[in-house]
Amino acid sequence: MRKRVYLSFLLAALLLGITSYFYSRSTTRYIQTVLRVQQSQRVVNQLELVLSLAKDAETGERGYVITRQEQFLEPYVAAQQNVQRELARLTALARPKPFHAARLPQLQRLVRAEEAFLDETIRLTRQGQSGAAAQLIIGGEGKRMLDAIRRLIAQMQAHERQELARLLGQVKAEAQFNNAVNLVGVVVLVMLFTLAAYTINQDINRQQQLRRELTNKNDALAQLSAGQRTLLDQLYEAQSIAKVGSFDLDANGLFIGTPQLYQIYGWDLALSGQRAPIKLLLEALHPEDRDLVMNAVQTSFREQLPYETQHRINLPDGTQRYLLGRGKTVQHDGLTHLQGTVMDITDRIQYEQQLQQLNRNLQVTNDELSTALEELSAASRQIKQYSAELEQKNQDLEAFSYSVSHDLKTPLRSVLSFGGILEEEYALALDEEGRRLLDIVLKSAHTMHELIEALLQFSRLGRTAVHKEPVDMDQLVRVLVTQVAESQAGQAGIEVGALGQAWADRPLIRQVWFNLLSNAVKFSASQLAPRITVGCRRQEQETIYFVADNGLGFNPRYAGELFGVFKRLPSAEGLPGTGVGLAICHRIVANHGGRIWAEGQEGHGATFYFTLPLHP
Amino acid sequence: MLNVDILHVEDDPYCVELVQRALRKLTPPPAYLAVRDGEEALAFLAGQVRPPRLLLLDLKLPKVSGLQVLEALRGNQEADMLPIVVFTSSQELQDVEQSYQLGANSYVVKPVTYKEFSEAVQHMVNYWVGINYLH
């Protein structure tokens, strides 16, 4: 392409040189020819001038000869004055040419001869011999001489004109040749320049195309660069968010780190992005983790394998951080680089540590729990064992109660019944002492019967299911108070507060009230002004009912024993009762899910409390 | 062939004597027979053309218990109309319920004093045997 252009220009230059040479040469010749044409022309003209001067001289002479007036002599004088000079010029011009050179001396002679003739005639005229002068003229001497001049000049002119025509033809031919040379040169030049122009144009087009492409590429590059900046910003932002820093370590032990890396290591951010010695990284490592990390990095370099470490670093401010380091080797510019990242996992590690602590605590708690469970299980087994034993005892008690109800009652009935027959039908057969003794037998048998009945009732309670229903305690207690007051013939003033409704087994809870009220009446009967108060206090989950009296009271020492079977207070001696009533109350209340207890002082009355749950 | 108004199944002879004493006061005194256990009672009833007017039945008996006797008799159509009163010292609710379920007409707990005992026996006989007289 470029070669073609160079070649084109080279050829063009060569051609131009050749053309110029020919042109120059032909032009030189042409100029010489033209000069010769001019010279010829001048020769022709000079010949004409000489002839004209010769004519002027004759004309002036004739006018003077005819008129004898001086004024007609003027052309003659002027011609006389110039003719020699012009002749000299002509000689100078025409002498180089042999044709002229051969004729110039004759012309000079003829001119001088005519001059001499004319001078003679003028002189004759001036002397007044104009006739002679006219005779001379008429003689035709002068005319002949002029004609000879005229013929000679015509000859020379004709020759010169011939020469001129030839020169002109030569000039024309040369001019044509010049033109031809010019034309060829121009055409070839034009062709070459066209070729060159075409080539150059192509070249320019291609350059323009390249320039456009380059511009486009530059634009794209600029955009790419902007994009890269954005990407880098995004990378930094992402690293900041992820608490990740990255670095590039070369084989010379120099590294470049991102701002986030510097942030993680607590270094001056302004130094990020500059190569720094690896010593900086290694010095930050926790002494215990240094070998671990260095081994990992060295192995990675040696084996060209990725590595991953979890290690600690010490920050300049003395705090410690946990990092997750990852890296791998890459080839860059023929050198091995290590590209690594570190992630700040301090938070995670701390959470894990807290979690581990919690887990340990949990483990301890678990162990304790498991121990407690074992103990509980053992206790449970023991309770089961106790329960089984209790169950067995209960069954024994049931069996005992059943046999009591039949086997004990049968002979007892015999005692009572036959004693009764004796008392009824044979009273008269006995004396007073006999009747007294029989009375003792019957009373004792009755007491025994009551005890047996109480015991049976108590035993039955253990086997009876509790059927709870809403019970109007006010009404229930009101009726009982009347009954108790009648049966016990008590004088007691019984004061009953509002009791409301309860969830209870009606017959069983009636038994409780009956027993407690009977006891209160019984134990206060000896008082001058027996007073009994009944009421309740409603709690959150239960209602506490109470029966208080101002009777004999009891020693608080015995408060726990009151509710046992056949437990009777020393103060109750001499009073009727079996010692089972409070045990029955205790059993019923317990079967209802409530509690029962007593407060009192000897001689200052007693208060019996029992609770019932508010809900069934 | 005995003509028996009241058959008493009772293993306690003192109890039998008390019943007899109570019946003696009735006019005319009903024909009374006591057997000692359920087996004897069932055997006697099986041999009778005319059933007694009242069966007094104790529960706790040797060999065949009172409840077994009840069960046997109430499964027999011939004895279907026989009034059976359970007369026992048991006050167990379970005994009461089972007796009625097996077809007892009444359940009377033996009173412990002679006065109440004889009154109870006399009232029972008046009620059950008296009604039977109308047939």
Automatic annotation (TrEMBL), chain B:
The keyword Phosphoprotein applies. Residues 5-125 form the Response regulatory domain. GO terms for biological process: phosphorelay signal transduction system. The keyword Repeat does not apply. Keywords: Phosphoprotein. It comes from the Bacteria. This is Response regulatory domain-containing protein. PROSITE patterns: RESPONSE_REGULATORY. The modification 4-aspartylphosphate is found at D58.
